[in-house]
Amino acid sequence: MKYSCLVFSEGRKDKIFLIALIDLDKFKYHTKKWAFNYDNASGSSPKTILGQCRKTTLGKNYDLILCFIDLDKLKSDYPKEWREEKKRLEVAYSNITIIWQINNAEDEYKKVLGGQRRSKHKLDKLSKQKVNEFINSAFWERILKPIKDKEQELD
Question: Which has more confidence, 10 or 106?
Answer without folding.
Answer: 10
